[in-house]
Amino acid sequence: MTKPLHYGWMIVFTGTMVLFSCLGLGRFALGMLLPSMGLSLELSYSQMGLIGTGNFAGYMASVILAGVVARSIGARNTIAFGLVLVGGSILGMSRSGGFVPLMVLYVVTGVGSGLANVPLMGLVSHWFKKDTRGRAAGLMLTGNGLAIVFSGLMVPWINADLGPEGWRTGWLVIGVISLGVAVISAVLLRNDPADMGLDPVGRPDPVPATENDAPASTFSASKSPHRWTMVHLGCIYLFFGATYVVYATFIVTSLVDERGFGEGTAGTFWAAVGALSIFSGPLFGWLSDRMGRKITIIGVYLLFTISYALAGANLSLPFLYVSIGIFGLAVWSIPTIMSAAVGDYMGPRLAVRAFGFITLFFGAGQIVGPMLAGMLADAFGSFSPAFFLCAFLTACGASLTFFLK
């Protein structure tokens, strides 16, 4: 008789759709929509960067509250509520007429994204043991890649028919999808395998339960025995947040404005990033399960350094292909590894709040990155200085990871 599929993999499937919506479309479709949106509303590069920064500021604010909200109403309800915020605010963006309303609504989108993403990553530690955690988190993060493929193909297709105002229909489609996924997540997600009489997926952990399995309400950076390791992980995560978002937000704009690419061609490049990124989470999650979190993070940061340096150098097309290929293949590796790492150090009961804690660092990087990149682009008339700065920061991230316990 065939053994029934563990419900943990249904959590992964649903989580993939959640990330497709709250981050993949809610955040990473912005890069495809910016060129036409900026042209229609006469936005400067600095204003484009500030719109992205507003989203990350909202995300960071929600991260502070996500653990508390999830404990009060449960992870499933928190995730569904977050997706409703994402969908509703994006529907409002589709009707916005200027920079200020776009900025305000995209802050709300960021709040919803954080309320959906942080509890979802914590569910990985509840439903999966250490030996399968990286793989499970990586599979969920394929949702981001699928969304990038979708936006890379959808936006040029819509704009070809609707012209400069096509970005409004693009946001409308994304908002409706997000509300649909909110309903699906409310129906299919479950907070804990014990609620269904199940054990987590994977082999039992070799180390017996410790103080890391204390109630989640006891977690704080000052009390945890791994408090400085969490700070260390957070600092490493900050370098990822500050750099990947610059590439994701502005690579399409730089292709269109600086290299003269048509929007359709740039969209094809962006879709290629998404297609490659589908393998990113599972590949590097599996590698981190086998080789260890530390050495995998170092390798990934070195790959990012090469990708950003090639983007900044404005070399011939083959080098641009290499840059885009490396970025796509590596882009979801760091969130995957971080999600698994906090479960390794803190245990399942503390994982949501610990992941929220290190995400504060990640969010701080995301707030600064697009704003600074937009200012540099306005000052120098090119995104090359911003991409070179990203390469320097990821090299620093690799160095800092070397000292991780």
Automatic annotation (TrEMBL):
Record-linked Pfam families: MFS_4
Spans through the membrane: 7-30, 50-70, 77-97, 103-124, 136-158, 170-189, 233-256, 268-288, 295-313, 319-342, 354-377, 383-404
Every Major facilitator superfamily (MFS) profile domain range: 10-405
Highest taxon of the lineage: Bacteria
Protein's UniProt keywords contain Transmembrane: yes
Keywords carried by this UniProt record: Membrane, Transmembrane, Transmembrane helix
Molecular-function GO terms, alphabetical: transmembrane transporter activity
SUPFAM superfamilies according to UniProt: MFS general substrate transporter
Record InterPro entries: MFS_4 (IPR010645), MFS_dom (IPR020846), MFS_trans_sf (IPR036259)
PROSITE patterns found in the cross-reference section: MFS, PROKAR_LIPOPROTEIN
Entry GO CC: plasma membrane
Xref: PANTHER family: PTHR23537, SUGAR TRANSPORTER
Protein name: Major facilitator superfamily MFS_1
